[in-house]
């Protein structure tokens, strides 16, 4: 019987030892380093199209990268699918690409110098966005832009 008591004591001591070891590992595990970024980590670089500028203006593109008479598609600050134009006399305009009939995206036609909706054929003047032919009677929304050096900025 004495050996049976000894076995019970050893078993109890082993169980207590196991619990203490498990608790120690749990506590040390909770003090492991977190995944929080260290101070001074580099920021993700932003693209020129998303670079905020001063006074609520956002860089859309560089003038030198635009081809006169062609359109450059971009997302306006409010999320509008938009198109940017540089005319042959170096003036820059931007319009919403969302057709005012039923919302399809209009495309710029360089040969005709118009924006044309592929869904039902509405046409709009470039660069002003005024309706040339329906089915819609509402002009395209203008996006206000300005040129600052080589940057085209959306004024927001
Ligand atoms: Fe553009 Fe109908 S959605 S003409």
Write a structural description.
This protein has 156 residues and is α+β, with helices and mostly antiparallel strands. It folds into 2 domains: 1-30; 51-154, Rieske [2Fe-2S] iron-sulphur domain (Rieske Iron-sulfur Protein, 3-layer Sandwich), CATH 2.102.10. 19% of the residues lie in helices and 29% in strands. It contains 1 helix and 11 strands, in the order αβββββββββββ. It has one helix at residues 2-30, and strands at residues 57-62, 71-75, 81-86, 92-96, 107-109, 114-116, 123-125, 131-133, 142-143, 145-148, 151-155. A 4-stranded antiparallel β-sheet has the order 2-3-4-9, with no helix packed on it. It has a 4-stranded antiparallel β-sheet with strand order 5-6-7-8, with no helix packed on it. A hairpin with a 4-residue loop joins β5 (107-109) and β6 (114-116). It is globular and about 40 Å long. Bound molecules: FE2/S2 (inorganic) cluster (FES).
In brief:
The chain is of the alpha+beta class. It has one helix and eleven strands; from the N terminus they run αβββββββββββ. It binds FE2/S2 (inorganic) cluster.
